[in-house]
Amino acid sequence: MDHDHHETPSFWRSRAGLALLVACAVIGFYLLTEHTAHLLGALPFMLVLACPLMHVFMHRGGGHHHGSTRSSNDEQRRQ
To answer: What is the DSSP string of 18-44?
Structure first.
């Protein structure tokens, strides 16, 4: 029994997706080569902004559970 499955390819494997990837690569190369001074000048500010963002997104509560009201997801992750 042959099943004829015609799945549509993902966007990134289509011609439009590949064209978008190439365009982003060219734009990224241009930004790195022509605007290096601007990017390096903003680097300290990006590092300072990364600290609170990492704190918010990576700690996710940090064990500040008072009492025994832990969710079942937290208990399953620890096992």
So the answer is: HHHHHHHHHHHHHHHHHSHHHHHHHHH
Residue 56 near residue 49 (C-beta atoms within 8 A): no
Place of tokens 């509560």: 61
Residue-range domain boundaries for the chain:
10-58
Full pLDDT tens readout for the chain, 79 residues: 556 667 777 888 889 999 999 999 999 999 889 988 888 898 899 999 999 888 888 877 666 655 555 555 665 666 6
Question: How many residues make up the chain in this entry?
Answer: 79
* pTM, two decimal places: 0.43
Distance (Å, whole) CA 13 – CA 16: 8
Helices 15-34 and 36-59: angle between axes, nearest 10 degrees: 120
